[in-house]
Amino acid sequence: MSDAPETPTIDGTDTPAGADESTPVTLKRRDALRVLAAAATLPVLDGLSAADAQAQGTAQRPAAAPAAPATQAPTGVTPGPRGTPADPDLLHPRTNWPRRLTTAEMVTITALCDVIIPADEKSPAASAVGAPSYVNEHVSAPYDGNQRDLVRVRGGIAWINLESRKRFSRDFARLTAAQKTAICDDICYVPNAKPEFRAAARFFDLVRDLTATAFYTTDAGMKDIGYVGNVAMPKFDPPPPAVLRQLGLE
Amino acid sequence: MFLSNPKAQTEYDVIVVGSGAGGGMAAYQLAVAGLKVLVLEAGRNYDPVRETPMFKLPREAPLRGAGYREKPFGFYDATVDGGWEVPGEPYTNAPGTDFRWWRARMLGGRTNHWGRISLRMGEYDFKPKTRDGLGADWPLTYQDLAPYYDRTEMLIGVYGGDDDLENTPRSSPGVLQPAPAPRAVELLAKKACGPLKIPVIPAHLAIMTKRQDANTLPKRIHPDNPLAQRVLAQSMRERQACFWATPCGNGCSIKANFQSTTVLLPPALATGNVDIVPDAMVREVTVDRTGKATGVSYIDKRTRTDRHVKARVVVLAASAAETARILLNSKSEQAPNGVSNSSGLVGKYLMDTVGAGLGGQIPILENLPPHNTDGASGMHMYMPWWLYQEQLAGKLGFARGYHIEFGGGRSMPGNGTFSGLETYTQGAYGKRFKEEARRYYGSFMWFDGRGEMIPNEDSYCDIDPDTVDQWGIPVLRFHWKWSEHETRQAAHMQKTFAEIIEAMGGKLTGRVETDGSRAIARGGQIIHEVGTCRMGDDPRSSVVNQYGQSWDVKNLFITDGATFVSNADKNPTLSILALAWRSCDHLLDELQKRNIG
């Protein structure tokens, strides 16, 4: 194992591993755009790749595109992001901070992310959609709260490996599922954690929150919990009857 | 947005300082009336059509879209070069004050990211002192402004219902667009509020649920003005109806909601009568020896040079606090305390909105069948203030009301959506965590009160003699104090939200804060700061008349929230727009009569 900082696998511009299953959302978006048909303007297509746009044959500029009057000339004050933290390029987001966790630390975080969100019949494990890299992105960010989290995560990684070696003579990532559970059961709930496990429990809770943010913001995560929005639609429908029935609102 | 070339002219009929709600409306109205208008904007040029991150996902953004120091409302928030702090442009707080000042240094200002909530002030709101003896009355009535509300709503596109409740006026027939269908959580809250006697009615938001009729509306809005009809029709044809996706706060590239940059500035520019200079930080209104405004001095931020432009009329719409700052910094021998400040009231009676919130977890919302609840992104329903009579009878212990904004449901997961599940699941992890996440997703609701603050002597801004910004302009210093009318109101909000959440069978996610001074948001935090140059009937007790025209400098107008006499619970933008329009009609009338210019 190396102490060299991990080479970031995502920097906000790369596709996270496993997060390339964006097809369902894109397809829905495309279908909705077909419905909008004539009303679809170029900006709507912004959410689509050029290939998508070509495939549906709507890549032309709309007839109603803003027309500048002839008397008007650009000043040369081109609108556009300055590229500062307060004015980043919103259409091409990227993070610009170096990653702080080492490769060895990432091995532990990856194992922990998958203990928190393992694969099941509905969706993949957290590591399959880039959650460990997000943990690294978060703790490496140059803001006070994030830097506090870096200390907590680093300290927690060191603790959990120490505890693993103490109990089972191996680093956390190399434990069996039952061994991992034995440790995590002691640290999974702050209010119930024994005093000697409290700090570790706070570490575990932080990683759980970060893993959940990472996982449920991917297409796999959104599909898992049944988020079906972010699609353009010609009209907004009232809640379906099954929903009204469950809420006693029929 | 293409701006026309300001080098073409050195003198204008009107200079408008600011390009947000008040400045955008002034530029538009004066341009369609045929005046040559120069708009000076302290921020950068901004084009929502090209720059808005429609459909971008949290996972594509740094920190999954979370807010951070320089983008407090999230990575994709439309505010660029702004926030609670603007680098190089500080403000200060007097000892004991913790006021926050949100600025958006960009074309269109805060209209690019605002909440689009567009509630009219009612009859009581214009005459609060007459009603309960507190604060001050406006020098106009609801009936004076109602026609401008109608026209503004038609112009910008506002959805809403036709309820006609106490001090909650309805629009004239055919003015509003249809309200969108309520979401499940909104219907659930409405049901729970029935026994509590809290009305839940369609909200009014500046979002188009259908396209505007470009063939008839411009004629109705601008009878007898062919130029206005032409540019407005063109502008309306460029706007799409809401397609029920993506947050309004990110801006709207299809122009379905109201932003100055999509609704007011394009038709203003299309007249050929408007030049816009961005990165132009106005520091002073210049006056001649007769006390007439001659123009403004500004700093060209790109070259760091000082410039002066002349005009027959100056309109300030830089935002309530920034407008006061410009006036206070415009000192001369005749006006040692600042231009238009013979009353000494510039900067005084600064107000914000009272804010307090509470959340709940609602078990009946657990495991709902997946369905799309994005809607217009803003609320489809809200609760207007409902206790006017109890309040007037002195039963509540605070004098003014609040409305309730609320929401929840199965919105797009973002940073932190699934944080805090430890508490609800007693520390779940593994496959059980995934099951719990499915169960709890969409079961949380939030309630926010937005209430009226009564102006007081202790809440104001002045110039900090010790500090200048990077342009050499003396900065504002804020002074702030809530009265018991506000803190008790905040405590009442907490109690009410708890009742609603419990009526839905829910559990509070936080503690009910009975101490209103703890429940209340900080001054400025709701970003509804108004006042500082209040209007009135008497030059000794007000800065401008009912048209926003300075008592001291007849060719100086203010069309932003600075002129507000009170700050009703109704979010101020719609009223700023309507008042700005009314000011422009008077300005044109004054020019025509040769009273000014």
Give a structural overview.
The complex is a heterodimer of chains A (250) and B (597). Helix content of chain A is 45%, strand content 0%. Chain A folds into two domains: 21-61 and 222-250, no CATH class; 103-217, no CATH class. The longest helix of chain A is centred in the middle third of the chain and has 25 residues, at 144-168. Chain A is globular. Chain A has nine helices and no strands. Chain A is mainly α. Chain B has 597 residues and is of the alpha/beta class. Chain B has two domains: 1-81 and 92-160 and 205-351 and 456-481 and 531-597, FAD/NAD(P)-binding domain; 180-202 and 354-451 and 483-519. In chain B, strands 1, 2, 7, 8, 9, 10 and 20 form a seven-stranded mixed β-sheet that branches. At the A-B interface, helix 1, helix 4, helix 7, helix 8 and helix 9 of A face helix 2, strand 3, helix 6, helix 9 and helix 13 of B.
Offer a quick outline of the entry:
The complex is a heterodimer of chains A (250) and B (597). Chain A has 250 residues and is mainly α. Chain A has helices spanning 23-36, 50-56, 103-116, 131-140, 144-168, 177-187, 198-216, 219-225, 241-246.
Tally of contiguous helical segments of chain B: 16
**What percent strand of chain B?**
15-25%
The CATH homologous superfamily of the largest domain in chain B is called FAD/NAD(P)-binding domain
Number of strands of chain A: 0
Multimeric organization: heterodimer
Distance between the terminal alpha carbons of chain A, to the nearest Å? 61 Å
- Overall domain count of chain B: 2
* Helix/strand order of chain A: HHHHHHHHH
Indicate the percent of residues in helices of chain B: 25-40%
